[in-house]
Amino acid sequence: MSDGRVNADQQQQQQQNLVNPPVKRSLSLLIVTYACLFVGSIASSLLAKYYFVHGGSSRWVSTWVQSAGFPLLLFLIYFPHFVFKTTTRRPFTRFTRRHLVFSVLIGFVLGFNNFLFSWGTSYLPVSTSSLLLSTQLIFTLLLSVIIVKQKVTFSNLNCVVLLTLSSVLLALGSSQDKPAGLTKTKYFIGFLSTIGAGLLFALYLPVTERLYRSVYCYAMVMEMQLVMEFAATVFATIGMAFDGGFNEMVKEANRVFSKGPTVFWTVAILANVVTWQLCFAATSGMVYLTSGITGGICMTALLAMNVIGGVVVYGDEFGGVKIVSTVLCIWGFSSYVYGIYVKMKKDEKKKQMEEKEKGEYSGVKTAEDGGDEGVLEVEMGKVKDDVATADDRV
C-alpha cells in the first residue's frame, strides 16, 4: 500500500473523528453534567416559587431570568483553553454559519417557550401545570422517533409511562393548590400556554440532538448554548421593553417585594439567573452526551426531588399520593438507568468480539509468520481509540 493511500486514509479517519462524537463517553463528565442538572433544576424551581411567594408577579421578568445568565457560559468556553490548558482547540473553532443560524433560531424558540412557561405558571395552579408539563415526555419520545429515529425499547417506554403516571398522581394529589378567583379565561390561557411550552420543549430536545451530531466536542455544545441563550435573552428583553418590564423590576424591588430590594436583586433575580443557566446548560450537555429522550427523562425524574424540596423549604404537605408518586418516579428512572447500563455492556462486549475477529481473520501475516510489523500496521490499520482525541473533544 502506498504512502499516499495511507495518508488519505488517515486524513479521512481524522475528519470522521472531528464530526462524530466519541462512542465511549467520559463517565466523569456525564456525572458532573447530571449533578449540575440536579442542582440547577431543583434550585431554579424553588427560587422561581420564592419570587412569586414574596410578591413577584411579572411574567416577562420570569422569562428574562431564565436565559439572562448566558455570559456565565464564557467561563466554560474560554477557561479550559486559556486558563486550565486542558484543550488545544481554540474557542469557536469550526463554528460554522450553519451552527450560528440554527442556534439563533432555536434560541428564539426557546425564548418563546420560556415566555409560555412563565405565562402558564402565572395563571395555573401548581397541580395543573405539573400535569400538563409532564406530557412533554410523551411528546419528546414521539418526536425523537420521527426526527432522530430513536428506537422505542421496553426500557425507555416503561420509563416514560412510569414518570408520566408519577406526574399525573402528583398533580391530582395537589388539587388544593388551586388559587382563588381564577377565571375561565385565565385558566384557558394558562392551559394553552403550558401545553405549548411542553410541546416546544419536547421539540427542542430532539432538534438539538440532531444538530449536535455535527458537533465533535463538549465545548462546542456550550458555544451553541451561548448563542441560543443570547437569542432567548434578546427575545425576553424586547418583550420587557415594550411591556415596561424593567420598570416593573425596579417597582417590585422597592415597593412590592416583601423581603426588600437587597434580597430581591440577590436571591429572586441573581440566584434565579445563575440556577436557570446551570439547568439549561446541563440539559444541553445531557442531550449531547446521551440523547434527547434521556435528557427529557432526567429532567422529569427530578420532579420527585422538586416535591421533596418543596416539603423541606416551604413546608408543603407530603401525603400518601406524593409518596407513591415519588416512588414511581424513582422506579422509572432507575429502570431506565439500568437499561442503559445493560446496553452499554452489550455494546462493549460486541465491540470486543468484532476486534477479536478482525485480528484473527484478517489474513495478514504477523511478525511470527515472517511478515513485517510495519506492513502489518499499514495493512490492518490502527484500531481507533475512543478516547484518543479527548483533549479536543472535552
Automatic annotation (TrEMBL):
Keywords: Membrane, Transmembrane, Transmembrane helix, Transport. Residues 379-394 have a biased composition (Basic and acidic residues). It is a multi-pass membrane protein. GO terms for cellular component: membrane. It holds the Pfam family PUNUT. Residues 355-394 are annotated as: Disordered. Its main location: membrane. The chain crosses the membrane at residues 27-48, 60-79, 100-119, 131-148, 155-175, 187-205, 217-242, 262-281, 293-314, 320-341. SUPFAM superfamilies: Multidrug resistance efflux transporter EmrE (SSF103481). GO terms for molecular function: purine nucleobase transmembrane transporter activity; purine nucleoside transmembrane transporter activity. It is found in: Membrane. InterPro entries: EmrE-like, PUP_plant. Belongs to the purine permeases (TC 2.A.7.14) family. This is Probable purine permease.
